[in-house]
Amino acid sequence: MSYQIISGYQSNDALRQSFNQLAEKTFGLSFEAWYQNGFWNDKYIPYSIVSNGKIIANVSVNLINCRVKGQERRYIQLGTVMTDEAFRRQGLSRMLMERILSDYASCDGIFLYANDTVAEFYPKFSFQKAEEYRFRTVSHIESLPCVKQVPMNNAEDFDAFLAFRRSHASRSPVLTDTDDLLMFYLTQFMQECVYQVNNRDCYIIAEQDGNTLTVFDILSNEPVDPSAVGQLFGHTVEEVCFAFIPENASALEKYVYQEEDTTFFVLGDTLLHDLPDILSFPALIHA
């Protein structure tokens, strides 16, 4: 059977529909709304194998420019790894990995998050398992919240948020240019997770589950004490977990973060050198 590798075809309606069908079948996930909202750009590049006009296997490349301690890095994240059930065990993922590693041999590093069931696959390409670190803290305050939800319901809301995002700094020592991936989440699954702090020029992206608040980013041109973030959300918050690395984290508890059924893999000497400063990549750039 003849197979062809194609990439960067998202503007082709038929191929994009086939890609989405495979993603829905594999992950229960569609990228169509992301495309229609205008946020699927040239930094998310599906490398796919097509047979008879149908996408049967894929590994996607995410181009991520990152600043680490003032140094510019060009990292690659691999994701959306999938093969149609009818075409598995034919070496299709290997074909895609070999092509991608050849195309991006000059990048500063490559990373991915693999399901544990396929964790033995990536070391065959010299990927190494690595640990990620995050921060958390407790919160005790008897007061009402002093944040208000920012609407994220339509294109006007999206544009207003991005205008704020681009004029305000992420309060993190490690910066990435990943607004496209951020909007994948905020326009679909996390539309109720953007908050403005009352009387302050500050947005917080966060999600509360029971008494635990997970903070995904803090946007402000003034320093924000991460140990006080939980207090802004009121007395129902007892623990605050940071899904990005906040600045001034010395008062927070640092811990090894292990996502369930997931292994973090990295490739490249520069990325391995940077990991003690990166600690972990923000959750909202995972793809």
How would the blueprint of this fold be written?
Elements: E1 4-7, H1 13-27, H2 32-36, E2 44-51, E3 54-68, E4 71-83, H3 92-103, E5 109-115, E6 128-129, E7 132-138, E8 147-149, H4 155-167, E9 174-176, H5 179-186, E10 194-197, E11 202-209, E12 212-220, H6 229-232, E13 239-242, E14 253-257, E15 262-267, H7 269-278
Parallel strand pairs: 4-5, 12-13
Antiparallel strand pairs: 1-2, 2-3, 3-4, 3-9, 5-15, 6-15, 7-13, 7-14, 8-10, 10-11, 11-12
Can you give a write-up of this model?
The chain folds into 2 domains: 4-131 and 258-285, Aminopeptidase (3-Layer(aba) Sandwich), CATH 3.40.630; 135-255, Aminopeptidase. 23% of the residues lie in helices and 34% in strands. The chain has helices spanning 13-27, 32-36, 92-103, 155-167, 179-186, 229-232, 269-278, and strands at 4-7, 44-51, 54-68, 71-83, 109-115, 128-129, 132-138, 147-149, 174-176, 194-197, 202-209, 212-220, 239-242, 253-257, 262-267. The strands form 2 sheets. Strands 1, 2, 3, 4, 5, 6, 9 and 15 form an 8-stranded mixed sheet that branches. Strands 8-10-11-12-13-7-14 form a 7-stranded mixed sheet. It is globular. It starts with a strand and ends in a 9-residue tail after the last helix. The mean pLDDT is 95.
